[in-house]
Amino acid sequence: MNLPKKQSWRQLHSRFEPGFKRMLLLSVAIHFLVPMLYSGILYFSPAKEKPPVYRVNLVNKPVKKPQAGRPEASVKKKETVVKKAKPKPKPVVKPKPKPAPKPKAKPKPAPIPKPTISKADEQSFDQKMAELRRQKEREDRLAALRENLEKEREKIESPVVDAPVGEVTGKGDEEGIAYASFVKEFITEQWRLSQYQLPSMNLEAEWKLIYNAQGVLIHKKVVSNSGNKAFDDSLLRAILKSQNLGRELDEQTEFEVTFNLREMQN
Amino acid sequence: MNRGKKLLLLVLALLFSVSSAWAVKIEISAPGEQEIPLALTSFLAMGAAQPKIAAEINAVLEADLGMSGLFSLVDRAAFLSDAETLGLSSVQVDFAQWKLLGAEAVIKGGYRVEGGKLIVEARLFDVISRRMLTGRRYIGKPDEARRIAHTFADQVMLSLTGTKGPFSSRIAYISNRTGKKELYMMEVDGHASVRLTNHREIVLNPDFSPVGKELIFTSYKNGNPDLFRKEVYTGREARLSHRQGLNIGGRYSPDGREIVVTLSKDKNSELYLLGTDGTIHKRLTNHWGIDVDPSWSPKGDKIAFVSDRRGNPHIYIVDVNSLEVKRLTFGGKYNATPAWSPDGERIVFSRLEDKVFDIYTIKPDGTDERRLTFGAGIKEHPRWSPDSRFLVYSLDRDGEKAIYLMRADGTGSRRISAAGGDDSHPAWSGYW
Q1: Nearest residue, CB atoms, B30 vs list A31, A253, A263
Q2: How many CB atoms lie within 10 A of CB B418?
Q3: Which residue of chain B comes nearest to A177, CA vs CA?
Q4: Residue A85: which pLDDT band, with cuts at 50, 70 and 90?
Q5: Is B186 a residue whose pLDDT tops 70?
């Protein structure tokens, strides 16, 4: 019953419409191409400059006496040391207490002579002081500007001037990010649950929601339940209350919403 | 599987992975509001109007559900026409009106007195899903409107949390309002207080049986602090343990078959297990230190108690089978009156700190200690509600001792005992 490969391929080929093979190949190619484009593999990325490498030789640090401690380093001839006889200890004589010297009267400090300044010197001094003041002001202004610059740098960067509304960071280049924030806020507002309803705060459930471009919920599905009735019922109520977002989305969007009580845990 | 099928499967898998990658992921880590907006409508007459009954039912429901901390009540002044209709089934309720008011749940009901009986119909509706969550018909005596309302409040809690509320249970306590310390019992909101003993001596430390409507307590009726048992409804009383010295701090085991008590028959106070007939089953502690204030774990395998065996009084836990003792608390100068929660999650106790006793809770493994009460006054003798949601305790402030109730997290504290005497040593019954 084993038909040759060519024959079986022909049989398979005969089942489909003419041109199916080409379309299938095209479809496969597109489906491979889209994720590749999405992942950015095909894009040209400029070669990054290598960061500077600092080499620190911690083993061969320069030392004052590189040969010190080595056996072959003993090149110097030992000097013959003549041992000196120890001197006999002198008898200890207690020193007589000296009479305390009488305190002498301190000499009065001589009056400091006042410097004599001419008018010309005074003018040049004022000019120098004014210049110093200006310099100081300039430096202060520069310091303030540098400080402001640092503050600006520390601020969260926004890639676009009109960053999407609702996203604090303004990061992301799609309006969908803003919609996600809006939908999150909207559903959160609808969710009512008391901590006194719950035996535990370690509860989590996941829902899949699809909103059409008009902001109307067209599909809802529980991906996973928490197992706690009060918690799961509260989610159902929240989603029923979120059937209409009251604003349009750019396109039909699917949301995977995870509900938990992380913020309520102590 | 031939190549064509393999290729098709690969394409489908690729398509699926690409589509799931496009879904926007959102994490919501707390609800927007932690109170459920509840509309509590006035119970309507289904026959001859009796405003007192309707007012009583509404007042009890409002107090109980308010104490639960679950709800924020929708202002009655904003109610629309649906509040004036009976609406005992979901098709009769105009949910759009309640949704407009922001309510997520609505309680509706009616009553009638028929043949000397009070019949109350009560319903809880979910406004969002437009369905009835719970509905009950209660039949009782005309003066039992309060009891019926408490029972429906318990039912509302069961419906919304999965655990029945404790509002129809009872609280026993000791009061000196007759001049002597006697045993009293009241409803959870402090109403319908009745005196149970007339010993004209000091009565202390009540505890409810988990199986029957009876109590044990210590009384100096015969000159010695003996352990007594009393049936609530028949009033029958018996002396359970009258050994020389202390017979105090009796606590029923969770199955009601044994009682742990402190006896000092051997000159030193130790914990013993007694049968319900008063015979000694087992000695639990054997130490020169004072061992008092026992409290069972809900499984009945461990007992928390107070001992000064290491200096200051601290909470210890003894294993009923192995008699192994483990220290639980290390802080404070004086730790007293532990009570194990019915769900087994925490142990509540009072601790002396800065010359004032306050209420604390701790996990049975010694972690996560939390202080629940603050401010002036001595807070003592904490005990759990049967659902572990609430605590009852005594507060000695401004020269007057009273019984207070609060949620298990220390919020919503309110006085429940009436003025006119010093009230202390509360004990919460099981589900009544």
Answers
A1: A263
A2: 15
A3: B24
A4: very low
A5: yes
Residues from chain B that touch A257, judged by Cβ atoms under 8 A, are: 26-28
- Residues A228-259 as b/e (b if ≥16 CB within 10 A, e otherwise) read bebbbbbbbbbbebbeebeeebeeebebebbb
> What pTM does this model have?
0.71
Sequence-ordered list of residues with C-beta below 8 angstroms from that of B291, at least 6 positions apart, any chain: B262, B269, B270, B271, B285, B305, B306, B307, B309
Q: Best interface-test mutation with A: which of B2, B8, B20, B26 has the largest number of A CBs within 10 A?
A: B26
Q: pLDDT band for A35, please (50, 70, 90 cuts).
A: confident
* Selected residues 118-147 of chain A with any CB under 8 Å from a CB in chain B: none
ipTM of the complex: 0.74
Nearest-CA distance A240 → chain B (Å): 7
- Confirm if B216 and B250 have CB atoms less than 8 A apart: yes
Which among B11, B24, B32 is the nearest to A254, CB-wise? B24
Interface contact B28-A35, CB threshold 8 A: no
Tell me which of B1, B14, B16, B28 to substitute to probe the interface with A (most A C-beta atoms closer than 10 Å): B28
